[in-house]
Amino acid sequence: MDPKKGFFDLGDIATLVDPSLVKTEEVSCPEVDFDLTYRLLIFTIMMIFQLVFVLKIMPETKGRSLEELGNELITEIKIPKPMETDKVTI
To answer: Which residues contact 15 (CB under 8 A, 6 or more apart)?
Structure first.
């Protein structure tokens, strides 16, 4: 879009008044490959991996606070708990 051109120009207004003033041309559309089999197969495989990840690795959080969940993950992974001096207060 030309930065000097406003939202409408004289050609746009003339088109609204008389559409026969518009110069038109037909352009052929490119061919579209509708064979989506491999794309759908890849998507399905990735969604199966996501389901396995969620069911096996993601922890259950229903009915538990984030603090409880964090403490449980820290004890499972054996990460040392932060010291009281490491806390940041705002």
So the answer is: 21, 22
Q: Terminal CA-to-CA distance of the chain, rounded, Å?
A: 48
The CA distance from 49 to 5, in Å, is 52
2-52: per-residue pLDDT in tens?
666 666 677 777 778 887 877 777 888 887 777 778 888 999 999 999 999
Q: In a 3-state reduction of DSSP, which class is residue 41?
A: helix
pTM for this predicted structure: 0.39
The Cα–Cα gap between 42 and 35 comes to 13
